[in-house]
Structure formats: C-alpha cells, structure tokens
Amino acid sequence: MNRVMKNSNSALEFSVDEGTSQVVVKVTDKETGDVIMQFPSDQSLALARYMDEVQQGKLLSQKA
Q1: pLDDT tens string 2-56
Q2: What is the 3-state secondary structure (H, E, C) of the chain?
Q3: Distance from chain centroid for Cα 43
Q4: Which among 5, 37, 48, 57 could disulfide-bond with 20, CB atoms 3.0 to 4.6 Å apart, if both were Cys?
C-alpha cells in the first residue's frame, strides 16, 4: 500500500475520531491537501455519535 501511494499524487492519513473512537482513513491530494475520500464519512461519524447519545439517554432514563 505504501509503495502504491508513494508513486501517486495521493496520501493516506489515519486518525481516531474522539466522539466514536473509530479509526478514520482519509485519502488526500499531496499538492493541495484536499480530502479526496474519507472512510467512514463525516455523515456516518455524526450518525454514530448521535446514536451513542440516544442510547446513553435511554440508559439514564431507565435507571431513574
């Protein structure tokens, strides 16, 4: 993978989303720094965060 990316105009960036603890992989343009693709998408991460909040709210209301 590193060999293929080295010969292209793209770079891989790995990080961990703080809200979901999911690994995020971004493919960026080396020259501009623009994000070409991201896995999971920002929308998917936002949905996962929302679902976590809803689940925590249900858990708290069940304990009360």
Answers
A1: 777 777 889 999 999 998 999 999 999 999 999 999 999 999 999 999 998 888 7
A2: CHHHHHCCCEEEEEEECCCCCCEEEEEEECCCCCEEEEECCHHHHHHHHHHHHHHHHHHHHHHC
A3: 9
A4: 48
- Inter-residue contact 24 to 16 (CB < 8 Å): yes
DSSP string, 16-29: E-TTT--EEEEEEE
> How do the domains of the chain map onto residue ranges?
2-63
Structure tokens at 16: 């961990």
Write the CB contacts of 11 (distance below 8 Å, at least 6 apart in sequence). 5, 27, 28, 29, 30
| Coil, strand or helix at 12 | strand
pTM across the whole model: 0.73
Per-residue tokens: 60: 């708290």
